[in-house]
Amino acid sequence: MDLDIKGLRVLVTAGANGIGLAVARAFVGEGARVHICDVDDAALTALRQSDPALTSSHCDVSDRASVSTLFDDATRALGGLDVLVNNAGVAGPTAKVEDMHPDDWDRCVNICLTGQFNCTRLAVPLLRQSRNASIVNISSAAGRLGFAMRTPYAAAKWGVIGFTKSLSIELGPDNIRVNAILPGLVAGDRQRRVLEAKAQQRGISYAEMEKIAFSYTSIKDYVTPQQLADQILFMCSPRGRTISGQAISICGDTGMLG
């Protein structure tokens, strides 16, 4: 299927690993021009060798000065902007709320939610000049379900849904589409670390924790980063021109988070 996105100018936050890298590579594979940012300098250095088509910046999305520099770099590299993928996030602490350090709460919310605001506020003036403008915010199944012992993460990801829905209304007159993706259990190191932390908290094995997690899904398999990338590419192509304000779950029909 020709998605007709050759030359599309795309910025992906936290694009040096995992979901972000899969999304960046998928766009490049369709002929788009992609700039990424990340806090992992080693990964950024490696990508300059493995993926020379990607341009990149070091950026902490919770730091507004860093985000300002990122947008200077991205607009210089891309010559404008058509798509912002707000992918940056952290898993946050695994703890009961009364045992949680306030700094851990702040860091999680500042990156997962406020970081999306920090990037979006600078992206919107650029997107208004695009003929095919989209914002995709990465939320989570935890953005529609409760998640015990992961309260800052869940609170931030619920916030992403409200941010997305409100922006879709606000930016609709400018023909800027805004959607959220809600991944479930995504294959990769971050999901493994989350399950390890929850297993430790419960005093059970990793295998037992993984079995519990999948007991709440209809499809007993991990979501792949490529599946998420495929959905994002479609939404950001002209074929997705009337898709906006949606919170799209790609989660194997997850009914609960344990």
Number of helices: 8
CATH homologous superfamily classification: NAD(P)-binding Rossmann-like Domain
Uncertain parts: none
Cα-atom radius of gyration: 18 Å
Shape: globular
Please report the distance between the alpha carbons of the first and last residues: 38 Å
Strand content: 5-15%
Strand order of the largest sheet: 3-2-1-4-5-6-7
Mean pLDDT: 95
Fraction of residues in H or I helices: 40-55%
CATH topology: Rossmann fold
Number of β-strand runs: 7
Q: Per CATH, which architecture?
A: 3-Layer(aba) Sandwich
Helix-strand sequence? EHEHEHEHEHEHHHE
Summing up helix and strand content along with how strands pair, one would put the structural category as: alpha/beta
Largest sheet features: 7 strands, parallel
User: Tell me, what is the CATH class?
Assistant: Alpha Beta
Work out the count of structural domains: 1
Summary of the model, kept short:
The chain is of the alpha/beta class.
Question: How does the SSE layout of this entry go?
Answer:
Layout: E1 9-12, H1 18-29, E2 33-38, H2 41-50, E3 55-58, H3 64-78, E4 83-86, H4 102-127, E5 133-138, H5 151-171, E6 176-183, H6 189-202, H7 206-215, H8 225-236, E7 247-250
Parallel strand pairs: 1-2, 1-4, 2-3, 4-5, 5-6, 6-7
Helix pairs in contact: 1-8, 3-4, 4-5, 6-7
